[in-house]
Design a protein that fits this description.
Number of strands: 31
Helix content: under 10%
Structural class: mainly beta
Radius of gyration: 38 Å
Number of helices: 1
Largest sheet: 6 strands, mixed
Low-confidence stretches: 1-19, 33-38, 285-292
CATH class of the largest domain: Mainly Beta
Number of domains: 4
CATH topology of the largest domain: Immunoglobulin-like
C-alpha cells in the first residue's frame, strides 16, 4: 500500500511541475536594427534574451552558442565576431522548477567583409632578394567589390599589391629584422540598402592572438675596392667569407686581381658574407691606374652635396664621375691653380666613383656614398 501511495505522490509532483512550465518560453533578439544587413568584421552585437516564466519560477542558467565556437552564460551577452560569415545563435534556458527550453536562429547575425591572411615563403633572406608572400586573403562579393591591399613593415606603409595576386613579391632593400602586416580596405555596395560600405581587416590581428610575422634580411657590407698600379684590391677583404673576380670567362677567388692578366677594360666583383652575395659589375671601365704622387697635386673635399677640388698643379685636371656599373654621370675640368665647386644635388643616392686625371695619364679614383 505504501508503494502505491509513493508512486501516486511522484505522479502528482510531476504533473505539478509540468503544469508550471505551461507559460515558459525562450526567445532572443538584438537591438541592432540592421541585423540582417551586412556589417564589417570585427563586429560586436548585444543580444537580449526574452524569457517568459510561470508564476513563482526563476531562471537558473543561460547557455549561449554564438556560432563561431564561442559560448556565454549571462542573460544579455555582448559578443564580437572577428570573421565574415553567417552565424547561427542558440540559447538554452533552465529554471528553478526544472523547466528547459531553447531557441535557435539560423543566420541570426551576418558579418561581411574581407579576411586578411598570408604566409611567408621564406623568413630568412638576403638584401637584394625578393620577399615572397602567399596571399591567402578572402573577399566577399569579389565580382562587385574593390579591395586595397596595403602591406606594412614595422607598422609603416611599405607597398601595395593587387587584390587577386596570389603570390606577392617585394625586393628587399635593407638588412635587419622586420615585422610584416597586411591591411585590407574593401569597398562594396550593400545589396539591401544600396549604401557603399567600407570594411577593414588586418593580419596578424593581436586581438585574436595571431602571431607576428617576422622575417630576417641579411646584408653584405659595401665593398671598398681600389686600383693601385697593376692590381685591384678589396681593402676590407677581411669581412668577407669569399671574394670572386670575374672577366670574360674567367673567375678568380682572391683578395686582389692582377690586371696584367685580365686583358679587358671591364671586370666584375662578387663578395660573399653570411651566406649572401653582393655583385659589382663592370667596376673598372678603363679607369687609369692610381699614381700615389699624383694625389698630392690637388685637394679633394666632399662637403655635403658640394664637391670641392683645388688644383695645385700647373696643368688642367679632368674630373669624371661614374656609377658603380660604369655609367658616366658627370664630367668637368679644373684649370691650373683653380678651384672647382661641383654641385651633386641632382645625383640619386648611391655609390659613385670620382676619377681625376691629367693629360699625362695620371689618375686617382675616390669612392663615396651619397645619401
Amino acid at each position: 500500500m505504501k508503494k502505491i501511495l509513493f508512486s501516486s505522490t511522484l505522479l502528482l509532483i510531476s504533473a505539478c511541475l509540468f503544469a508550471q512550465c505551461n507559460d515558459f518560453s525562450v526567445d532572443f533578439k538584438t537591438n541592432d536594427t540592421v541585423m540582417q544587413v551586412m556589417v564589417c568584421s570585427p563586429s560586436s552585437v548585444l543580444i537580449n534574451s526574452l524569457v517568459q516564466l510561470d508564476a513563482g519560477d526563476e531562471v537558473t542558467s543561460y547557455d549561449w552558442w554564438f556560432g563561431d565556437g564561442k559560448t556565454g552564460n549571462i542573460k544579455n551577452p555582448a559578443h564580437t565576431y572577428y570573421d565574415a560569415g553567417y552565424y547561427k545563435v542558440k540559447l538554452v534556458v533552465h529554471t528553478k522548477n526544472g523547466c528547459v527550453d531553447s531557441m535557435s536562429k539560423d543566420s541570426f547575425y551576418t558579418v561581411m567583409g574581407p579576411k586578411a591572411q598570408f604566409s611567408l615563403v621564406h623568413d630568412t633572406l638576403c638584401s637584394g632578394q625578393n620577399l615572397q608572400i602567399n596571399n591567402e586573403s578572402e573577399f566577399e562579393f569579389s565580382n562587385t567589390a574593390t579591395a586595397r591591399m596595403d602591406w606594412m613593415r614595422d607598422g609603416k606603409n611599405y607597398f601595395s599589391s593587387g587584390q587577386f595576386d596570389k603570390i606577392v613579391t617585394q625586393r628587399l632593400d635593407s638588412a635587419g629584422e622586420f615585422e610584416l602586416s597586411l591591411r585590407i580596405t574593401q569597398t562594396y555596395k550593400d545589396p539591401v540598402t544600396g549604401v557603399d560600405r567600407i570594411c577593414l581587416d588586418y593580419y596578424p590581428n593581436s586581438l585574436q592572438g595571431e602571431p607576428t610575422m617576422k622575417y630576417l634580411v641579411k646584408g653584405v657590407e659595401e665593398a671598398n675596392f681600389t686600383r693601385k698600379n697593376d692590381k685591384m684590391y678589396v681593402n676590407n677583404a677581411s669581412v668577407y667569407d669569399s671574394i670572386l673576380w670575374s672577366y670574360r670567362d674567367q673567375k678568380i677567388i682572391s683578395d686582389s686581381l692582377n690586371l696584367n692578366d685580365v686583358n679587358t677594360k671591364t671586370i666584375g666583383l662578387l663578395v660573399f658574407q653570411n651566406g649572401c652575395a653582393r655583385y659589382y659589375p663592370d667596376i673598372l671601365m678603363g679607369v687609369p691606374q692610381l699614381n700615389t704622387s699624383f694625389s698630392q697635386q690637388f685637394d679633394f673635399d666632399l662637403n655635403g652635396l658640394v664637391l670641392n677640388i683645388n688644383n695645385k698643379s700647373d696643368q688642367i685636371l679632368y674630373l669624371k664621375v661614374f656609377s658603380t656599373n660604369g655609367k658616366l654621370i658627370a664630367s668637368s675640368r679644373v684649370k691650373a691653380g683653380a678651384t672647382l665647386q661641383q654641385s651633386l644635388d641632382s645625383f640619386d643616392g648611391g655609390v659613385y666613383l670620382f676619377n681625376i686625371t691629367d693629360a699625362k695619364g695620371h689618375s686617382e679614383v675616390k669612392k663615396y656614398l651619397l645619401q
